[in-house]
Write a structure and sequence with these properties.
The protein is mostly helical. Helices cover about 80% and strands about 0% of the residues. The chain folds into two domains: about 1-35; about 40-150, no CATH class.
Length: about 150
């Protein structure tokens, strides 16, 4: 347990001593600043990441509760989902910043993409909660309305 309080110092020393980690961290921060230039976009992106993690956790618990085996293919789908979302966000951001006449729509476009991600993942969380056996009229009503709107 003595090493735990030294963890920030160890991480700081690792990043400071290795030029590769400095370079990698700077590149990630630069790309992040280019793709998400405003603080509102960063906070919305953080919310989307949080709900994506929540979806993964509730999906894992739902699988455990139902007795389904958790395979690497299921976690592979999470990785594909993250890659797909990241690609859409990057394309929307770059297009909004580089296409003529689109600069004023950049933030609105990205907020729309994040909104779609949050709604999609939120519905997935509700489905996972239902699979875990939680009975709730609110959850059932939301899911019924969603599937009814989709024509299912």
């Amino acid at each position: 347990m003595k090493a735990l309080p030294d963890l920030p110092n160890v991480l700081n020393k690792t990043v400071c001593d290795f030029a590769f980690y400095k370079w990698l961290g700077a590149c990630i921060l630069a790309i992040g600043e280019y793709v998400l230039p405003g603080s509102a976009l960063k906070e919305t992106a953080l919310g989307a990441v949080a709900i994506l993690l929540l979806d993964t956790l509730t999906g894992t618990f739902a699988s455990l509760k139902s007795g389904e085996a958790i395979s690497s293919a299921k976690f592979g789908r999470v990785a594909v989902k993250i890659l797909g979302y990241s690609s859409v966000i990057a394309v929307a951001s770059i297009a909004g910043q580089t296409l003529p006449g689109m600069k004023e729509y950049h933030q609105a476009g990205l907020m729309g993409v994040f909104g779609l991600i949050i709604v999609t993942e939120g519905i997935s969380v509700l489905e996972n909660v239902q699979k875990m056996g939680v009975k709730s009229e609110v959850v059932q009503t939301v899911l019924d309305r969603f599937f009814q709107a989709r024509g299912e």
